[in-house]
Design a protein that fits this description.
The chain is built from two helices and 13 strands; from the N terminus they run αβββββββββββββα. The longest helix is centred in the C-terminal third of the chain and has 23 residues.
Length: about 220
C-alpha cells in the first residue's frame, strides 16, 4: 500500500511541476550580442511571463544593472503568429519608467537594431529630462498585463526570432553604457534551448520521478 501511495504522490508531483512550468516563463538577459558590456552583474535584466485569470502578466526587472545604464527596448516573440488586437495595461512598480510605445501585430513586425525580427516591441524613454528620471534604470521594476487574445499564454512567448541566423528568445537594448555614457548594448537570454524549469519545479520533477522509480522497482522485485 505504501508503494501505491508513493506512485500517487509521484504522479501528483509531476502534475504540479508541469502546471508550474506552464504557468511561468522567465528570460534572463545575460549575453551581449552587439556593443559594449553593461555595467553591473549578469543577468542584467529579466522578463517573466505569468498566466493569470485576466491575461498574461509580464514583469520586467533590471536587478543586475547598475550605474547610468538604462533600457530603451525590450523585444519578444510569440507562437500565435498574429498579435493584432493585443491590449495592455502598464504599471510602474518602482522608478518612473515611461513606456513610450507598444508594438504588436503580424508576425515579425518589430525590427530590432541587430536585424532580428520580433512580434512584440516595447520602447522606453530615452530623454535626459530631469536627469533621466523617466528612464528604465537599474533596480527599476515594471509590469504589463497583456490581454485581448483568447489563446495567449505565458508559454506562447517561448519562441525564436527570425531570420534563422538571428534566432533569439528575446532581445533588449541598453544605452548610456561606458564612462562617457555614449555606448550601447544589445543583450539576449541564453541562446540555447528554451528555458528549463526553475529549481523548485526541478525538485518536484525529481521527487515525482523518484516516487515512480521506487514503485517500479518494488513491483519488479515482487
Amino acid at each position: 500500500m505504501k508503494y501505491l501511495r508513493a506512485l500517487i504522490l509521484g504522479v501528483a508531483l509531476l502534475s504540479t511541476a508541469t502546471a508550474a512550468q506552464a504557468a511561468t516563463l522567465t528570460f534572463d538577459f545575460e549575453h551581449v550580442i552587439s556593443g559594449d558590456t553593461p555595467e553591473g552583474t549578469p543577468p542584467w535584466l529579466s522578463a517573466t511571463f505569468t498566466d493569470t485569470s485576466e491575461g498574461v502578466l509580464l514583469t520586467l526587472a533590471a536587478a543586475g544593472l547598475t550605474g547610468q545604464d538604462f533600457i530603451t527596448e525590450w523585444n519578444f516573440n510569440n507562437t500565435l503568429g498574429d498579435l493584432t488586437g493585443l491590449d495592455y495595461l502598464y504599471t510602474n512598480v518602482t522608478g518612473v519608467t515611461e513606456l513610450t510605445s507598444f508594438s504588436a501585430g503580424l508576425n515579425d513586425a518589430v525590427l530590432a537594431g541587430t536585424g532580428a525580427r520580433y512580434d512584440l516591441g516595447l520602447r522606453f524613454a530615452t530623454a535626459n529630462n530631469q536627469g533621466g528620471v523617466n528612464r528604465f534604470m537599474g533596480g527599476d521594476l515594471a509590469t504589463i498585463l497583456l490581454f485581448g487574445l483568447d489563446d495567449l499564454t505565458a508559454e506562447s512567448f517561448n519562441a525564436l526570432s527570425s531570420p534563422a541566423s538571428k534566432a533569439y528568445l528575446a532581445e533588449a537594448k541598453i544605452q548610456g553604457v561606458g564612462s562617457n555614457a555614449l555606448g550601447s548594448s544589445w543583450i539576449v537570454p541564453d541562446p540555447g534551448p528554451a528555458p528549463v524549469p526553475e529549481p523548485g519545479t526541478m525538485i518536484l520533477l525529481g521527487a515525482g520521478a523518484f516516487g515512480l522509480a521506487i514503485y517500479g522497482k518494488r513491483r519488479k522485485n515482487a
